[in-house]
């Protein structure tokens, strides 16, 4: 089959429901937490393992090469604290 | 190849505030897919947790164009989509199926097998959390022996169906196993797969804290333990060459493997068999058999050798 635009614009259109990527598609999920990760900057080496493993993308890289948490959306799973090789993250109860 | 974590893209590939449970392995995996393949990706997602994780219209928690589709049609819809992109001259788009273990091994299997046999130019990823999680933890053919689910109250009586081996027997270009416990290994495999034309299959182990009954903080650890105990070997099969992945090589030696009990005891789904040595032995035997098969494949599909001869002669 040759390359190039062989498709013609259809004469009839149907409208499919479209969603667009946006934060908070189910709201501020920070309210789901029962404990929150707290980063100890002095212990953090900036290895970025927590950033890599966080399922929520709520670990933010800071300008000094370390990390901070987006508490609006962090669900408090504790994965970051579990993977940190330097014990630089503690889970602190919020209830 | 060593991946520098600082050089990986820091885009919000998973949008915070999505509907996934805390500690979800599927959102982890989706981030890595986009980190590896970039923005020129369209996802085809059959029913499952990843359909729901997207959240509520008009917003989506996954930062990629997605076609949500019925179970039975994922691989065929991807086939058609790829053909349409090619007809439009957009040859560089990666069409990626992202399907659960139920969607892959049971309900979507005929379409998967068909697309593999036709060597369609798509990447198919099975995100394997070893049960139908989205509908409430029912057994699938990929649930392992002994595991509790809501339809196997006393533990499943059958072993896990070995989908990657079934795909290797289809003679496709690329098959790999990966685990969310080793993201850079998964990313490297995706990058290698993305350079190959034809059908590519990656089987991603995705421990689910909800269905496997473990503390959500442990998703990555459980995913690593599956490899460290020898239960889930990581390997690649590329154009007729079979090789163990660097992290998994050492577990060829049984004395290097962690005892399987370390893996089982973290998970509530195995609670009923912790005090039954004969049940644990069955799982240990399964591990032994898995490695016997791996050794045969390594020998048979070794680089530079008469590839696959031993296996294909036997068929
Ligand atoms: C034909 C059909 N049967 C059943 C369902 C209901 N259903 C929706 S999601 C799902 C579970 C999917 O399990 P899996 O593919 O393992 O993905 P997971 O939810 O674990 O990510 C089921 C059974 C459906 N949508 N369509
Ligand atoms: S894993 Fe620990 S040391 Fe590494 S960046 Fe995160 S907090 Fe810092
Ligand atoms: S607790 Fe979980 S969601 Fe929150 S920052 Fe850590 S890994 Fe991410
Ligand atoms: S049930 Fe498991 S796989 Fe599904 S969204 Fe929850 S954590 Fe993720």
Report on the structure:
The complex is a heterodimer of chains A (95) and B (315). Chain A has 95 residues and is an alpha+beta fold. Chain A has 2 helices and 5 strands, in the order E-E-H-E-E-H-E. Chain A has a domain of 51 residues: 2-Layer Sandwich (Alpha-Beta Plaits), CATH 3.30.70. Chain B is an alpha/beta fold and 315 residues long. Chain B has 12 helices and 9 strands. The longest helix of chain B has 24 residues. Strand 1 of chain A pairs parallel with strand 2 of chain B, so a sheet runs across the interface. The complex binds thiamine diphosphate and iron/sulfur cluster (3 copies).
The ordered H/E elements of chain B are: HEHEEHEHHEHEHEHHEEHHH
Backbone structural class of chain A: alpha+beta
Care to count the β-strands of chain A? 5
The parts of chain B where pLDDT drops under 50 for at least 5 residues are none
* CATH fold assignment of the domain at 43-93 in chain A: Alpha-Beta Plaits
**CA-based gyration radius of chain A:** 21 Å
What CATH architecture label of chain B applies? Answer: 3-Layer(aba) Sandwich
The largest sheet of chain A, given as strand count, sense and whether it forms a barrel, is: 2 strands, antiparallel
| Quaternary | heterodimer
| First-last Cα distance of chain B | 36 Å
CATH superfamily (homologous) name of chain B? Thiamin diphosphate (ThDP)-binding fold, Pyr/PP domains
- Our Rg estimate of chain B from Cα atoms comes to 19 Å
Q: Tally the helices of chain A.
A: 2
